[in-house]
Amino acid sequence: xxxxxxxxxxxxxxxxxxxxxxxxxxxxxxxxxxxxxxxxxxxxxxxxxxxxxxxxxxxxxxxxxxxxxxxxxxxxxxxxxxxxxxxxxxxxxxxxxxxxxxxxxxxxxxxxxxxxxxxxxxxxxxxxxxxxxxxxxxxxxxxxxxxxxxxxxxxxxxxxxxxxxxxxxxxxxxxxxxxxxxxxxxxxxxxxxxxxxxxxxxxxxxxxxxxxxxxxxxxxxxxxxxxxxxxxxxxxxxxxxxxxxxxxxxxxxxxxxxxxxxxxxxxxxxxxxxxxxxxxxxxxxxxxxxxxxxxxxxxxxxxxxxxxxxxxxxxxxxxxxxxxxxxxxxxxxxxxxxxxxxxxxxxxxxxxxxxxxxxxxxxxxxxxxxxxxxxxxxxxxxxxxxxxxxxxxxxxxxxxxxxxxxxxxxxxxxxxxxxxxxxxxxxxxxxxxxxxxxxxxxxxxxxxxxxxxxxxxxxxxxxxxxxxxxxxxxxxxxxxxxxxxxxxxxxxxxxxxxxxxxxxxxxxxxxxxxxxxxxxxxxxxxxxxxxxxxxxxxxxxxxxxxxxxxxxxxxxxxxxxxxxxxxxxxxxxxxxxxxxxxxxxxxxxxxxxxxxxxxxxxxxxxxxxxxxxxxxxxxxxxxxxxxxxxxxxxxxxxxxxxxxxxxxxxxxxxxxxxxxxxxxxxxxxxxxxxx
Length: 675
Description:
Elements: H1 3-23, E1 46-52, E2 58-64, H2 70-76, H3 82-96, H4 100-113, H5 118-130, H6 134-147, H7 152-164, H8 168-181, H9 186-198, H10 202-215, H11 220-232, H12 236-249, H13 254-266, H14 270-283, H15 288-300, H16 304-317, H17 322-334, H18 338-351, H19 356-368, H20 372-385, H21 390-402, H22 406-419, H23 424-436, H24 440-453, H25 458-470, H26 474-487, H27 492-504, H28 508-521, H29 527-538, H30 542-555, H31 560-572, H32 576-589, H33 594-606, H34 610-623, H35 628-640, H36 644-657, H37 661-673
Antiparallel strand pairs: 1-2
Helix pairs in contact: 1-2, 1-3, 3-4, 4-5, 5-6, 5-7, 6-7, 7-8, 7-9, 8-9, 9-10, 9-11, 10-11, 11-12, 11-13, 12-13, 13-14, 13-15, 14-15, 15-16, 15-17, 16-17, 17-18, 17-19, 18-19, 19-20, 19-21, 20-21, 21-22, 21-23, 22-23, 23-24, 23-25, 24-25, 25-26, 25-27, 26-27, 27-28, 27-29, 28-29, ...
């Protein structure tokens, strides 16, 4: 066979090998996947082209976007070294068939014969890379570049191996050199963008991913990773647009749905977040973080049961995450499971004691459990960590209120309103605190603000009604308490206070009806018996009045007014001994109770005990020098004892101080009769 026939035969072999190599080039390998990494996209096909090597003979140089020719391959083989040629093509065949170990062996044998063979170093480096022996790959690519510094693909693949070894800075440098030689190498921009992203240099990452996509719009993973960097930069709308492009190219891109869901969550678009995270979980039910973020979205939409389910699943896969315990605590709080909320939030705080929001929500759970001191301690620590946490002032104010520490409650609720002037609940509780301190005008103003914020807050009508009652605005009190009773017809306290307002307006029948309803709906409301007794007395139902005052006294034996009014009811029934005993008891409890002195004096007169009557009337006018009737009855008692001078003096005193025509007429008659 002639030498020419051998050459022609070799050329045909080379053509076939080149076609195989073009069809089975290596797909760029992904970085070692982390828990949130995805498979990397396939780069543009790598082909080879003949260029002169430093020794003067042609070497195979991989490039992007060009066609290899059989002539280039043939010229690249040192024709004078039959063994080297045979070994190289054997290595190429193994490489094309992805038999990496055998390829390494053959290229090593080539280099033992031809140590200046650039392409042998390059392909052996790629074979090492495919075997994840990245340090050996880096060394081979370095030798290839020593022989041919313009070999852009050697820089590119060495950068990929640096990336696999988590040496991002070296990778970035090599990608940069590759791009200086071949600015159209889209994969270099893509992977350099990933290296920048690994270093949290997200602005540079976004720039590289954008160039990669401009060069190759089909790089779906570039959309995905650019979306990730936008997400890290809190550019959530841009992130959503990128993830949408990524899943449009690859509808099963689990992490695309996952991260788009997270971006929706960050924008408060919770329904869309739930939909995307649900889709991600359909593709990967073990994606625990998707449960975590979907749980947060459910929580944000008050779907507490769903939130609890998802967060529990997240915790099963990622135990020890303080944030998961934190959100679990909030879900329990939303479900009214306050002990469980305290337990979960305590676990979160054990892992992160400086988590002010966990202290805040645990404090809220303590409030609902009536553990007000513990709540105050949590809110105080939360505010030390974050003085701008206005809601903590609100809830601490509520806790102070429930402990009857009204001044501190007012101070905290005022701070809460400085932070959020639209907080109707803060006005409501501050109004209640003012009411408890008998600051009725301030209470009325705050409760009115609360009702402007929430007209359905019927409790605010109830408390404003009480504030009106305290300000002697009885008709307004009746109106507000009536509105409270429309929504809660069984509110015994509302009947009680409305009954009192009716009583003050001398509407005794209405008062009696309301106070009767009060004791029927709330048997513990013994004060209602006292006021109903007063209504019965005014309606001259004295026996019923005595019965109610007796109940009031049994409940509170120190109630001087109940003794006083029962004494008056006994007097109206001419049961003077019982009346005198009640007035005496009222005076023991309140030694300056002038009306008790006055009516006991009247009882003494009825029993012809005139000296005792004079003594009681004298004590009455000592307490009130303008009490005309006390002067009149003392004068009458003096007259009954024949002490006319003293009687005349008292009747004249009546004429001086009285403005009542009837009393003046009575005193004038007495003076005329005494001459």
